[in-house]
Amino acid sequence: MWNIMESRGVSSIIFDLDNTLVDTAGAGLIAIQKVCELLKSTHVQESHIKDICDCFLRKLRHESFDPSEGKTIDEVRIHHWYEALQETQGTDPDPALATNCYYTWKKTRLQVLTFSPEVRSLLEELRKNYKLLLLTNGDTQTQWEKIEAARCEGLFSLVVVGGDHPEQKPAHSIFTHCFESAGVRPQDCIMVGDSLSTDIQGGINAGVRATVWINSDCKSLPQGSVTPDYTVPSVLNLNDVLLKLR
Ligand SMILES: [Mg+2]
Q: Where are the transmembrane segments (predicted)?
């Protein structure tokens, strides 16, 4: 019986979203360019613009968002822009400018965060033979806005956002939630993602059949890192892995 069940093969694919299915990093660059254009049209000194944007990005990278503190993610990120303007220029900025920077950045990022036609058709093909799950870390509002912008509906049997749960990837609990909600077993699934510390580590902890690392920059594995079962430069190479797992 055990052998029969083991021979069933992969029936389900769990995907990460950011920088796996959508080019979040690329969308972020385009969004920052838009804010630079906006700032050029204001009284802000041109020599300050790059520093303001770099300062915002640093704050974004080190952001720790706790919804229980009573602020929305929009408010927190408007404040990042306010502080970036303030710290770079050494004066208190117009709060309206910080708000304008934020919504320009956010709107542009969401507009360009779509599945490429190639990724969309890959998912449409895969869903004929596999149960597709989307498992993304991040805060609830930001991630659901991205999911809506990428028009994910209909492509996935299950969409899970880390911020909606007590623990995010790589925690075992969020993977267990996925398996139970989708009615699949860990050994039926592969985990596909660009982050070694969350996607690959999480997949290994959860006991999935195989982990697939999306390594678009062709980086070498950092010392002491977990080792993915497969490494591909793009999600568009996933069929090569699936063939090997048959
Ligand atoms: Mg990612």
A: none
Q: Measure 42 CA to ligand 1 centroid, in angstroms.
A: 35
CA of 15 to the centre of ligand 1 (A): 9
Cα(147)–Cα(150) distance, rounded to whole angstroms?
A: 5
Structure tokens at 61: 């990278």
Say how many Å lie between the CA of residue 90 and the centre of ligand 1.
35
pLDDT digits (tens, 9 = 90+) for 49-69: 999 999 999 999 999 888 889
Query: For domain 2-22+115-245, which CATH number applies: 3.40.50.1000, 3.30.420.40, 1.10.1240.10, 3.40.30.10?
Result: 3.40.50.1000
Surrounding ion ligand 1 within 5 Å at CB are 16, 18-19, 194
What would the pLDDT profile of 110-169 be if each residue is shown by its tens digit? 999 999 999 999 999 999 999 999 999 999 999 999 999 999 878 999 999 999 999 999
For residues 16, 212, 168 and 23, what is the CA-based torsion angle, rounded to 10 degrees? -30
What residue ranges do the domains of the chain occupy? 2-22+115-245, 25-112
